[in-house]
Design the sequence.
């Protein structure tokens, strides 16, 4: 053992000395040193007595009693040092090399927490500059950490903010990776509200950082809406009953309107009441593009004549599908024939330019096959429903009254309104009787016309100089974007939601938008390695990667706490490589005091 002094200067300009007790040893013949104790700057033993003091410490550690004539100050100092060394678990008889003595029969695993998804998500947020954006909004470190927890939690364990809190506390290593304080559940809600309050600045900077990172321009934007449904029936400012494509008409809805760029990254997001009219929402979204003039791609539900007139007025290009019923396939030879990315044959007819608008007819064999299958199913169901009512006219106990039968036929037509106009259905009255005699049904000419047109659709665009193939491929990208957008609906906790207050609903949905942006960046990076898995599949694989805390006892008072990532499996390894993450086990080892064992009640 030996003592070393070191001088350093305080901010005040005062120079002070600090003293350290060290030990020299050898590992495989090579000299090493380790610090045993920090003796502080109030160490008063003169330098000429340091060697005597360290010898006295070594003797006491070996059990040799002090001599009666030794200096009292040195005895007191050595006794204090020995006591402190005992507190640290120091053993002078232990081997002096890089091996640790472990009590193997007392090894325990304290915690196993997910770490793979957390590391990947944190890397993506780092690439997006998420923390600097929040720092620029004057957020403190705790708020930035907890906002990160909310976004990563929504990506890996989607649900309510309360569920995110449970995931953070019980299953995830997110706080350890962030070196963050554990927030209260209320703090998570408050930070979520703060995120939504600053949504415009956050989304604008996130999108700008994404463009700079991936190097793409903004020439096309896609506009789409989706509904999220509430789990209860209570209504509020945003909770309104409306039309749901998922047939969730048993509860109130909220509408999320999102503008996405051609790569699928969200540009703007607006949260609207559940009964909002789709066409009426476009102006608000376009107004948030801050003067940008991209081409707007819309589906038929949004492409009203009023919206098209508005886009023309704003000087924006546009492309959409005509809302009217599609006519049969033209009899003339198609102007162009081309293949989609899935090898589907598409025929195209140019219908001409009128009022600075180009119209074209597209017919897809694959689309016709799918729609024919759907139509056949609906027609069969409708015909069977009418036949059931007709058969019941001659069966005891079934409805027979003319008014009742007419009402039931009207209900069936409403239920199958997409194909009911292809049939003539007449209820024949029984002479001299209030009952119905029979129900007569036959197909109209519209039946065959609809079959001919089931795979066709008319595309309209302001770009009169575009070729039909360019128009078609641009519009098909809307389907690809919608497929990506479904990730937010199904895999990122957009629905259902569990709040009724306006501010809570807004924060919940905005978190899903941020999680979608981050997850989409990860999938974008993975596509460079030809990995096209859904976020749901990626998330499951990453959540198999755990960080394990192992307690290695050395003696009765101290132990080694070892934290280590599990070995990466092949798929997570590819994800880590794509995100340029470290592939090692990220081992952390430190010596800590052993906690007393708790008695277990049987």
Sequence:
């Amino acid at each position: 053992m030996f003592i070393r002094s070191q001088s350093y200067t305080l901010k005040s300009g005062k120079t002070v000395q600090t003293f350290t007790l060290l030990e020299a040893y050898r590992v495989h013949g090579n000299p090493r040193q380790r610090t045993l104790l920090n003796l502080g700057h109030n160490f008063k033993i003169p330098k000429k007595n340091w060697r005597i003091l360290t010898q006295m410490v070594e003797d006491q550690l070996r059990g040799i009693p002090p001599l009666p004539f030794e200096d009292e100050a040195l005895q007191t100092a050595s006794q204090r040092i020995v006591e402190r060394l005992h507190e640290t678990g120091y053993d002078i008889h232990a081997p002096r090399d890089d091996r640790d003595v472990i009590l193997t029969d007392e090894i325990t695993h304290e915690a196993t927490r997910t770490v793979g998804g957390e590391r990947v998500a944190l890397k993506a947020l780092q690439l997006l500059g998420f923390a600097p954006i929040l720092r620029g909004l004057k957020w403190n470190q705790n708020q930035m950490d907890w906002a990160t927890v909310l976004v990563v939690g929504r990506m890996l364990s989607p649900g309510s903010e309360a569920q995110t809190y449970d995931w953070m506390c019980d299953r995830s290593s997110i706080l350890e990776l962030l070196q963050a304080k554990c927030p209260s559940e209320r703090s998570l809600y408050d930070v979520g509200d703060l995120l939504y309050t600053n949504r415009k600045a956050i989304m604008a900077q996130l999108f700008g950082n994404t463009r700079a990172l991936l190097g793409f321009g903004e020439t096309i934007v896609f506009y789409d809406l989706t509904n999220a449904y509430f789990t209860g029936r209570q209504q509020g400012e945003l909770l309104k009953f409306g039309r749901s494509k998922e047939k969730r008409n048993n509860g109130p809805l909220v509408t999320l309107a999102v503008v996405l760029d051609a790569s699928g990254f969200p540009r703007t997001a607006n949260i609207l009441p559940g009964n909002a009219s789709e066409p009426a929402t476009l102006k608000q979204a376009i107004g948030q593009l801050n003067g940008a003039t991209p081409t707007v791609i819309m589906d038929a539900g949004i492409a009203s004549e009023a919206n098209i007139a508005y886009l023309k007025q704003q000087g924006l290009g546009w492309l959409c599908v005509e809302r009217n019923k599609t006519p049969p396939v033209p009899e003339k030879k198609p102007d162009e024939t081309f293949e989609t990315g899935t090898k589907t044959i598409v025929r195209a007819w140019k219908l001409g330019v009128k009022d600075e608008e180009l119209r074209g007819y597209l017919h897809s064999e694959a689309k016709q096959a799918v729609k024919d299958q759907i139509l056949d199913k609906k027609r069969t169901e409708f015909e069977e429903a009418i036949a059931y009512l007709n058969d019941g006219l001659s069966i005891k106990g079934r409805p027979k009254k003319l008014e009742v039968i007419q009402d039931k036929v009207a209900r069936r037509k409403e239920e199958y309104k997409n194909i009911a106009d292809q049939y003539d259905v007449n209820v024949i009255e029984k002479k001299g009787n209030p009952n119905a005699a029979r129900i007569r049904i036959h197909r109209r000419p519209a039946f065959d016309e609809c079959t001919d047109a089931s795979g066709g659709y008319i595309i309209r665009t302001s770009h009169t100089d575009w070729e039909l193939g360019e128009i078609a491929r641009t519009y098909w990208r809307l389907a690809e974007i919608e497929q990506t957008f479904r990730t937010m609906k199904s895999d990122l906790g957009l629905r259902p939601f569990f709040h009724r207050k306006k501010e809570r609903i807004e924060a919940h949905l905005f978190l899903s938008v941020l999680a979608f942006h981050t997850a989409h960046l990860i999938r974008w990076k993975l596509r460079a390695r030809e990995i096209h898995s859904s976020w749901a599949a990626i998330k499951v694989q990453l959540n198999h990667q755990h960080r394990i805390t192992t307690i290695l006892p050395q003696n009765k008072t101290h132990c080694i706490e070892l934290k280590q990532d599990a070995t990466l499996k092949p798929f997570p390894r590819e994800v880590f490589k794509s995100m340029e993450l470290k592939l090692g086990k990220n081992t952390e080892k430190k010596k800590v005091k052993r906690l007393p064992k708790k008695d277990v009640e049987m």
